[in-house]
Design goal:
The complex is a heterodimer of chains A (317) and B (317). Chain A is mainly alpha-helical and 317 residues long. Chain A is 66% helix and 0% strand. The radius of gyration of chain A is 22 Å and the shape is elongated. Chain B is mainly α. Chain B is globular. Chain B has one domain: Orthogonal Bundle (MetI-like fold), CATH 1.10.3720. The chains are: A mainly alpha (317), B mainly alpha (317). At the A-B interface, helix 4, helix 5, helix 8, helix 9 and helix 10 of A face helix 1, helix 6, helix 7, helix 8 and helix 10 of B.
């Protein structure tokens, strides 16, 4: 499918439109917050602690008088960096392992397959806690933990895809013509598994947003001088008995971002599935957002540990 | 069947071996070493050297690992670096909170996920089905900490119904009181995991509704919902069981975060505290216990699934 047609197909679905829309907003906020925020997110003022939402402070203020809106706005930067870095690491680890587990000599690929089966059971949070015990908590720990933890999931999903592609006639023909493994991977395998990988990339980013929030809540994620939604939740949690309303904002920001990534994943899967596409045309009307059709794979059947848990196992949230 | 069981057991044992190596190696990546970490910046080189000898860190890494792994087999997790007490005693003590919490969460999750999942499949295309589907999609994106905070806000702060913090100091000597303090945390995890189960059950039930046997039953005068419950449910439950292992892993990970939020003296909270203290033998022991738990439940569920599914049983004969 041409790129333009794919994007049109994606945006036509409510899930895709919401996902793309919200994520664009988050990325724009992240960029803008580097140079401008309504107020300084770290500026404390004991006289304006716990102000209720108003025009000057749309989300109110916290225990030390910080403007919650500015803080949530600034924290988009942390979220985007962590999500993109985790997604890239997870994809590289995942596709790399999958390629090793399918295109190499028999003993290599079978040992890698067993390794993937074993590693996939390890919860991301536990990996993160082990790393935090050794190196102290940081956003790098989140990225590495999700990169490795979710990377194995990506490896498992893409390995079976690669094996299917590897058995096709055109790959056999290419190999017979003397094309090397690397070239086969680049020219035939990767383009074919791209939709699956993009779906997984999106889910791994959702996992990383939840993981960052969870670890920062536990005190092993973002450092004190970095604005982070999870950190804000942890700061506000101490006062939940008195000001339960204040935790709504950072939590909502996390939820909507994770939702957008999950829905984008669903939409990419549907838009790249020719069967769903043609049926859709045949029907002529766009379906309702929550009914993507019975033939769709059960949620997370191929994505253990996403979001709730991540998903998962291993989703910290 | 025997072949499957043996293979699955080997995977379990292999998983434990890989886990022990990974956990041990990660914690040994610590910049400096354990002795340095304990002595801190104030320790003289002689003190550090003495400590190193006392802890056996002057031996080759492989010997240290074998020593630790040998202990694991005998259920000996070593002694705390900070207090010198045996780790296993404390771990067993904490499991008395974490295991009931996980079990109760699973019960809540199943009670929420399965009936609502089946209902939302039966009501596909109708308003109630759309609401259920969308609600589940949204809830599956909620960070579990935030869900906990919102429930605390509603049940404890506003309605003053349930305790939000802590666990009876005398443990389970008053079962009613102990159970009461687990209700809200378990409900938190149950809701978030239940949302994932709901989506999965819904997909599986939609698949079952498309099957010939439901159509035949409906043609013979049964209502679609009765046909689904009578003939489709066993199939739906089988798919649910097959993902239960991942769900339980996610649930145990959620428990780590939730124990922190509700200050429950469980294994997760112990892990978080010990990571902060850098009590590495304890962290090693806790991570190993949690991983064993996840792998063991995965094993049990796989065996149960195999036993339950008549198609797989058939293949064994």
């Amino acid at each position: 499918m041409r790129r333009g047609a794919f994007v049109r197909e994606l945006l036509r679905r409510p899930q895709g439109a919401f996902g793309v829309g919200w994520l664009t907003l988050i990325v724009l906020s992240a960029l803008v917050s580097r140079v401008w925020t309504p107020l300084d997110p770290f500026d404390t003022d004991p006289y304006s602690a716990w102000l209720t939402p108003s025009f000057g402070h749309p989300f109110g203020t916290d225990s030390v008088g910080r403007d919650i809106f500015s803080y949530v706005f600034a924290a988009t930067g942390t979220t985007v960096v962590v999500a993109v870095a985790s997604g890239v690491v997870a994809t590289v680890v995942g596709v790399g392992l999958a390629a090793l587990g399918s295109l190499t000599a028999r003993w290599v690929r079978e040992s890698v397959a067993v390794l993937i089966d074993v590693l996939v059971a390890f919860p991301t949070l536990l990996i993160a806690m082990a790393l935090a015990a050794a190196f102290g908590g940081s956003l790098t720990v989140v990225v590495v933990a999700v990169g490795v933890g979710y990377g194995v999931t990506i490896a498992r999903v893409s390995r079976s895809e690669i094996r299917q592609v590897a058995r096709t006639d055109y790959v056999l023909a290419a190999r017979a013509n003397g094309l090397g493994t690397g070239a086969v991977l680049r020219r035939h395998v990767l383009p074919n598994i791209a939709p699956v990988v993009v779906v997984q990339l999106s889910l791994s980013m959702a996992t990383s947003v939840l993981a960052e929030a969870g670890l920062s809540f536990l005190g092993y994620g973002a450092p004190a001088d970095t604005a982070s939604w999870g950190r804000l939740l942890s700061d506000l949690q101490k006062f939940i008995g008195v000001h339960p309303g204040s935790v709504v904002w950072p939590g909502l920001a996390i939820t909507l971002t994770v939702l957008a990534l999950n829905l984008l994943g669903d939409a990419v899967r549907d838009a790249s599935d020719p069967r769903l596409r043609s049926r859709r045309r045949g029907r002529g009307t766009p379906g309702s957002p929550s009914t993507s059709g019975p033939s769709t794979a059960p949620p997370r059947a191929t994505a253990p540990g996403a979001a709730g848990t991540p998903t998962t196992p291993g989703v910290v949230s | 069947m025997t072949r499957f069981v043996v293979g699955r057991l080997l995977l379990f044992v292999g998983g434990l071996a890989v886990a022990s190596v990974l956990i041990f190696a990660t914690l040994r990546l610590l910049p400096g070493d354990v002795a340095q970490a304990i002595a801190g910046t104030t320790g003289s080189p002689e003190q550090v050297a003495a400590l190193r000898q006392q802890l056996g860190l002057d031996r080759p890494v492989v010997v240290q690992y074998l020593d630790w792994a040998g202990g694991l087999v005998r259920l000996d997790l070593g002694e705390s670096l900070v207090t010198g007490t045996p780790v296993i005693d404390e771990v067993l003590d904490k499991l008395a909170v974490t295991l009931p919490l996980a079990a109760l969460s699973l019960v809540f999750g199943l009670l929420i996920g399965i009936p609502l999942g089946v209902t939302s499949a039966l009501r596909r295309g109708r308003a109630s089905g759309v609401v259920l589907g969308t609600g589940a999609q949204l809830l599956a994106a909620v960070p579990v900490v935030w869900a906990g905070m919102l429930l605390i806000g509603v049940f404890a702060v506003t309605l003053r119904l349930l305790p939000t913090q802590g666990f009876p100091a005398d443990g389970w000597s008053e079962p009613g009181r102990a159970l009461r303090s687990l209700v809200l945390p378990a409900l938190t995890i149950g809701i978030v995991e239940g949302a994932v189960l709901l989506r999965f059950t819904r997909s599986a039930a939609l698949g079952a509704l498309d099957q010939d046997y439901v159509r035949t039953a409906a043609a013979n005068g049964m209502t679609r919902s009765r046909a689904l419950v009578k003939h489709g449910l066993p199939n739906v439950m089988l798919s649910v069981v097959s993902i239960l292992g991942l769900q339980v892993a996610g649930l145990i990970v959620s428990a780590v975060v939730i124990e922190q939020l509700f200050t429950l003296p469980g294994l997760g909270r112990m892990l978080v505290t010990d990571v902060g203290r850098r009590d590495l033998t304890k962290v090693q022991g806790e991570l190993m216990t949690l991983t064993t738990l996840v792998l063991f439940i995965g094993l049990v569920i796989d065996l149960v699934h195999r036993r339950l599914d008549p198609r797989l049983r058939e293949g064994d004969r």
